[in-house]
Design brief:
CATH topology of the largest domain: Rossmann fold
Number of strands: 16
Strand order of the largest sheet: 3-2-1-6-7
CATH architecture of the largest domain: 3-Layer(aba) Sandwich
CATH class of the largest domain: Alpha Beta
Largest sheet: 5 strands, mixed
Oligomer: single chain
Radius of gyration: 26 Å
Strand content: 15-25%
Number of domains: 3
Order of helices and strands: EHEEEEHEHEHEHEHEEEHEEEHHE
Helix content: 25-40%
Structural class: alpha/beta
């Protein structure tokens, strides 16, 4: 068997933390072994035309370790084995074109970084004679034969942090908060984040739930003095005898889109417990830096006068009066109420968008 001279690497499916780290590792390992590495752009689309790929060297991947997303781009729509595509050579079968271009480009192997759908496609190309190495990348952590997939740990950390931030609101208002997390048909994110975040009930796809039992447990908490509860629901969770909640049905080679079970659980718990409830399934960061930056300067930096002294609250109020409006800081200089900031400083918090159903 001839020695491997050139290989291709691509990212496919949804983006997840760690993709650029994997690309970097592939390129550096290839260079150390004397193998040329071709970066294929936008998933398998990079094998449709010669101009949709580029040689990657260690210099090209220096510094990308900390970047999110993927420098190669990705596609999470459709299946190459189910449609034809327009190319410079006319309308051709997508999968046939990929195999043809793989050989024309002189590739000896293909590294596919993706989730279950992408790796399934990679396996189909393997059956057509392309040597394939699959790298499991998915926040869902649902690839058979793996322990942890790339992206899973970061997803758990984010979800745990979001759940942890909801405890104070739930306790202050004596509410039941329902948090819907991703994961598709696997409950790993809900289970890990729910346990780490101190959830009082965790509903996962692997165990169909009885909403009556869940409501009973929450009422028991209420009886012995815990007047609030947090329920974590995986998007693929289903009630006993029920069906998975969908935002969109599968169509034209596209997979079904899950979502909405959090709202159902929220409504059912409201009826069975009589408690105020909120659905907090849309969590987003309001800004990146702990110190909010506007115009390139942090709020703390703007408080320092030209002579280096920290401006007092009086200075700030006087400045606000000269501008003919309110200072962006409150009267105590700790942040205005509409920012959702309190005496803890100026960290722009990850705020839950709550809905009352």
């Amino acid at each position: 068997m001839p020695a491997l001279q050139r290989l291709g690497v691509l990212t496919s499916g949804g983006d997840a933390p760690g993709l650029n780290a994997v690309i970097r590792a592939v390129v550096k390992s290839s260079a150390n072994s004397g193998i040329e590495c071709m970066g294929l752009e936008d998933s398998f689309d990079g094998l449709l035309e010669p101009g949709r790929s580029r040689v990657l060297t260690p210099r090209d991947v220096t510094g990308i370790l900390r970047f999110g997303g993927t420098i190669l781009g990705t596609v999470n729509r459709g299946d190459p084995f189910h449609h034809r595509v327009a190319t410079s050579d006319g309308l051709v079968d997508y999968s046939d074109r990929v195999v043809e271009m793989f050989h024309k480009m002189g590739l000896g192997a293909l590294i596919v970084i993706g989730g279950d759908g992408s790796l399934e496609i990679g396996h189909k190309f393997f059956l057509r004679g392309i040597p394939v190495v699959g790298v499991p990348k998915t926040i869902d952590n649902d690839i058979f034969g793996t322990t942890n997939c790339f992206g899973f740990d970061s997803a758990v950390v984010f979800a745990t942090d979001a759940i942890d931030r909801l405890h104070t609101t739930a306790e202050a208002h004596k509410r039941i908060l329902v948090v819907e997390v991703m994961g598709r048909y696997a409950g790993w994110i809900a289970l890990y984040a729910g346990v780490a975040g101190g959830a009082d009930a965790i509903l996962i796809p692997e165990i169909p739930f009885d909403i009556g039992i869940v409501a009973q447990r929450l009422r028991e908490r209420d009886d012995w003095g815990a007047k609030f509860s947090i329920v974590v629901v995986a998007e693929g969770a289903v009630p006993i005898g029920g069906k998975v909640a969908l935002l969109e049905e599968a169509h034209g080679g596209y997979s079904e889109r899950l979502g909405g079970i959090g709202l159902r659980v929220c409504q059912d718990l409201a009826r069975q417990t009589g408690k105020a409830r909120r659905r907090a399934d849309q969590l987003r960061p309001r800004a990146g830096d702990p110190l909010r930056r506007e115009g390139g300067r942090s709020r703390e930096a703007r408080r320092v006068r030209d002579d280096g002294r920290l401006r007092s609250a009086g200075h700030r109020r006087a400045a606000a009066g000269r501008r003919g409006g309110e200072d962006e800081d409150g009267p105590d200089g700790l942040g205005s109420a509409h920012d959702g900031e309190g005496a803890g400083g100026h960290f722009r918090r990850l705020k839950p968008v709550s809905f009352e159903s």
